[in-house]
Amino acid sequence: MNLELLTKTENQKVQNLLIIGIRDLINYKNLEPGEKLPSERMLSEKFNVTRSNIREAIRKLEFYGLLKSIPQSGTFVANIGIIALNGMIEDILRLDEPDFKSLVETRILLELKTVRLASLRRTDEDIAQLKEALDAYIDKVSNGKDAVQEDLLFHLAIAKASGNSTMNKFMLSITPEIILKFEKHHVCDDDLAQRGIDDHQAIFNAIIDKKPQLAKQKMKEHFKELYSYCYNL
User: Fold this and answer.
1) For residue 48, is it left (φ>0), alpha (ψ between -120 and 50) or beta?
2) What is the pTM of this model?
3) Are 70 and 61 in contact (CB under 8 A)?
4) What mean pLDDT is predicted for residues 84-90?
5) Number of domains comprising the chain
6) Counting runs of H as helices and runs of E as strands, what totals does the chain give?
7) Are residues 163 and 178 in the same domain?
8) Facing residues of 74 across strands?
């Protein structure tokens, strides 16, 4: 197949075709859990695509735990069994791009958990990173500049401070799409950004004081307007 990367939609199609190709290769060669896939170079030649295309498809399957890449060693089939692997790949191929409401709901559910955990587990290093992200947000907003990225960096710092690597990974995975959706829908106007300073400061203080319930409540209040906005689109 001769595949070219032209648009985001076509990129998704390329990824899906490559995922199908990798799945069929695993089945055809009867690769067992723990066995090694052919190299990126060999796969790119087989499917007539660039190595970066192969890398993206492998990363996606690795994100869902179906493959495991080991530096200097290669990529291996995960230890989950071929029936489960095939079933999960079918589900992955049916996934649609998340809509704005889905992203907001997912983000809120995650962050109400991460902020509570962060207030219990945060380290001095976490506090320093949170303070740096908060100061960057305040600086941008105070100077009338767009601060969507700084806003999300503050929230990512909270996810990291939670000490839960899985939640942190989920936050990292949805953040790029959140930034795009926020800019598309013009979510953060000047008034909301200004109120965000007080909200972020209150959340930060609750984390410093190790008050999980207060931290969760302040995060819930912070998201109230966003949630309302989302359901009035």
Assistant:
1) left
2) 0.68
3) no
4) 92
5) 2
6) 10, 2
7) yes
8) 70
Which token pair is 141? 């907003």
Q: Residue with structure tokens 């990173």?
A: 129
Start-end of H helices in the chain: 8-28, 40-47, 51-63, 82-94, 100-121, 124-142, 148-161, 165-185, 190-208, 212-230
DSSP for 114-179, please give it: HHHHHHHH--HHHHHHHHHHHHHHHHHHHTT---HHHHHHHHHHHHHHTT-HHHHHHHHHHHHHHH
Whether the pLDDT of residue 161 is over 50: the answer is yes
Which CATH number belongs to the domain containing residue 114 in this structure?
1.20.120.530
Residue appearing with tokens 């300073």: 197
Paired tokens of 120: 């219990």
Question: pLDDT tens digit string along 172-221?
Answer: 888 877 777 776 655 666 677 788 899 999 999 999 999 999 999 999 99
